Amino acid sequence: MNKLRVAPYGAWASPISAASLVEGAVQISEVRADPVDADLIWWSETRPDEGGRTAVMRYSVASASASEHTPTTANVRTLVHEYGGGAWWPHNGRLFCVDFADQRLRVIDETGGVRYLTDEPNEAGAARFADGRVTPDGLWCVAVREVHGQSGEPRNEIVAVATDGSGHINVLYDDADFVMSPRLSADGTVLAWISWNHPNMGWDSTRLHIARIADGVLNGDILTIGEDDTASYCEPDFSGDELRVCCDHQGWWNLYDVNASSGDLLRVVGGTFDIATPPWVFGMQRWAARPNIAGGTQIMAVAGMPTGDELIVDGSTIATSDTAIASLSVGAAGFVAVGAGFDHPSEVVRYEVDETGLRREVIRSSKPVPFEDGYLLQPEWITFPTATTTASVEQGTAEQGGVEQGGAVAHGLFYPPTNPYYVGPNGERPPLMVLVHGGPTAQARRELQTAILYWTSRGIAVVDVDYRGSTGYGREYRQSLNGQWGVADVADCVAAAAYLAKRGDVDPQRLMIRGGSAGGFTVLAALAFHEVFSAGASRYGIADLEALVADTHKFESRYLDTLIGAYPEQQATYVERSPINHIGTIDVPLIVLQGGEDVIVPASQAEMIVAALKSKGIEVRYLLFPDEQHGFRQAANIVRALEAELAFFGDVLGFDPVGLTLDAFS
Asked: Are residues 348 and 464 in the same domain?
């Protein structure tokens, strides 16, 4: 038995290097059973080692073999809404997809031959496509199109694209600011889709539309459901000719049968859990249905629980090792999904359920865990008291719990330091990293995250905070951030640190906060408005809310109307909440990381905060990655960014990291 070594927290040796997180790794984001060919399952892989490109794989059930179906130079990625998703869809052995370079829709046949379905626009990327489905006769592809280049905002519409290569396109629907999820009935005669308008987001208030379709055009009237309410409809799809949709009009995204004549909804899978998740990207799906041998319908759905996802089949919870399940679909090859757990990485899995229970078959793993089980841990789900929301920001310290407590609660996942060969010195408590997810309408991930184990294996505790506004706790909790962004989320992150410090889990004098995008804004606001953290890391975070309103893309251009208030009517609040206007109160070191090609949070946001802190004499380190967008995809950049953060926090908090391989600031 190995004798435990005593070393300062933060200075433990770990086999989990930054390079090990990306070497040979793939990110499996979407999987689909071919809707026609019973032998085929498809999935996408994003590969950091190959410049972050995304390839689409084709798997034969009969031969148990997989091969890349896209060309080795392809990068299957759409820029609709900038966040993309749903850049490919299969049909009877053929792959319909969009390449990042030109955004044109093409089809790749069974032999790998490529045919373009849309013409080359006058300006590269001006016509973008996503989230399509193919009619049963194979003659039309119904998809979302986003058109750039004209005056004003991009135009979003549902279109039917001829699959013969003629370039013929019919516009089916263009009467909304945003559209998503065009879905066809099994016989191809009915089309359903979702739409919404500014200032709503896809998780605020949307509409479900149903219409007859034939020969690439709509026939008759469009039935609209949800036009007069504030519910969010998402993830519509057909099982045969039966239409179902997720809706949160009763507080949770449950699954409902839809009466296509009256628009009435009948709940078929539900409870105090969300099935759907916020549609930040296209192609998200957490339920599927197919005919069963008794002549009825077998429905499989994912129930999001605080401790992880659960699988529900025909109303019964079925045990599975997956605590994070996404991209659930069903075809002739059965139910398939992306499944992950706290003890295993994301995998392409096939589920079969019968009277004997669940059979789970792994088809592809994103990457085997390269270290022993002693580094793995299942986090503790914590609920802790936090501040009541107010309309303004307030100063607070860790000992005070940030601000005055008032009966509200927030949640998080706590990861203590874990290494089978090390313990900390007697009487010493570990530093804590408060991790702030992006969105802010998102949640902490319920799965193995080796990027978190990178820190815990070195002796650093991590809490991944589900602050107010996070999903997975119902509509009321999700909307509790409305009008309070920059206040409630910040208070919850401060309260999480205070709670763990008071429990004795962490050192209250060595608290860090780290986040990206919206999470980066929360980091900057926490440093500006609270005297709690010793250091912060902001990845492509927001410093100036007014500048964001002017600079960001269409999809999020009115997001702040809900999170803060209408602009310019509430300009004073935008000024008050912007960290750039409170540089005088930031007095701890900060590291800022930014992509040079980011159009969601432009580099100007990072440069503002960096210049302001430098002028004040505060230590600030800045890494600009010229060839990255919103989030880092390339292996070398991922390694450099992570090692830079570790070196930075070590310098600030006084521990000597082990295993750094490069000088990230040279």
From this structure: no
Does 143 share its domain with 283?
A: yes
| Confidence band for 22, pLDDT divided at 50, 70 and 90 | confident
DSSP H/E element including 226:
none
Give the end of a domain, one of 365, 384, 402. 365
Q: Where are the beta strands (DSSP E) in 422-544?
A: 422-423, 432-436, 461-466, 511-516, 535-539
Say yes or no: 430 and 556 in one domain.
yes
Distance CA(54)–CA(208), nearest Å, equals 31
Question: What are the Cα distances from residue 426, in Å, to 1, 422, 654?
Answer: 21, 12, 17
Sheet (strand 169-173) strand order? 127-134, 140-147, 155-162, 169-173
| Per-residue DSSP letter, 397 | B
According to DSSP, the β-strands at 422-423 and 5-6 are: parallel
- Work out the burial of residue 451: count CB atoms within 10 Å of its CB; fewer than 13 is exposed, 13-18 middle, 19 or more buried: middle
Which domain-ending residue is among 333, 365, 397? 365
CA distance 470 to 583: 28
Q: Residue 289 and residue 415: Cα distance in Å, rounded? A: 36
Tell me the CATH number at 462. Answer: 3.40.50.1820
User: Do 505 and 474 touch, CB atoms closer than 8 A?
Assistant: no
128's tokens: 């973008």
* pLDDT, tens digit (0-9, with 9 covering 90-100), for 329-343: 998 888 999 999 999
Do 239 and 141 sit in the same domain of this protein? yes
Longest dimension (CA), the chain: 76
Question: What digits encode the pLDDT tens for the residues 43-98?
Answer: 999 998 898 999 999 999 999 999 999 999 999 999 999 999 999 999 999 999 99
Query: What's the residue count for the chain?
Result: 666
CB neighbour burial string for 489-524, b if at least 16 within 10 angstroms, e if fewer:
bbbbbbbbbbbbbeeebbbbebbbbbbbbbbbbbbb
pLDDT value for 412: 98
Could you tell me which residues come within 8 angstroms of residue 524 by beta carbon, excluding any fewer than 6 positions away?
536, 538, 541, 542, 543, 579, 586, 590, 609
Asked, for residue 590, whether it belongs to a domain, the answer is yes
Owning domain of residue 481: 410-653
Q: In Å, how far are 71, 103, 118, 119, 174 from 125, measured between CA atoms?
A: 20, 5, 12, 11, 19
Query: Given its phi and psi angles, is residue 559 left (phi above 0), alpha (psi -120 to 50 degrees) or beta?
Result: alpha
Residue 404 within any structural domain of the chain: no
Residue 296: band (very low, low, confident or very high) from pLDDT cuts 50, 70, 90: confident
> Domain for residue 532, yes or no?
yes
Report the amino acid identity of residue 103. Q
Q: How far apart are CA 515 and CA 524, in angstroms?
A: 9
For 465-515, the pLDDT digits (tens) are 999 999 999 999 999 999 999 999 999 999 999 999 999 999 999 999 999
Residue the block writes with tokens 């004073």: 572
| In a shared domain, residues 349 and 454 | no
- Looking at the domain assignment, is residue 88 inside a domain? yes
Q: Taking a C-beta distance cutoff of 8 angstroms, is the pair 336, 348 a contact?
A: yes
Q: How many folded domains does the chain comprise?
A: 2
Same structural domain for residues 441 and 356?
Answer: no
- 263: Cβ–Cβ under 8 A, 6 or more apart, which residues? 223, 224, 225
Residues 140 and 268 in one domain: yes
CATH number of the domain to which 210 belongs: 2.130.10.150
Indicate whether 465 and 350 sit together in one domain: no
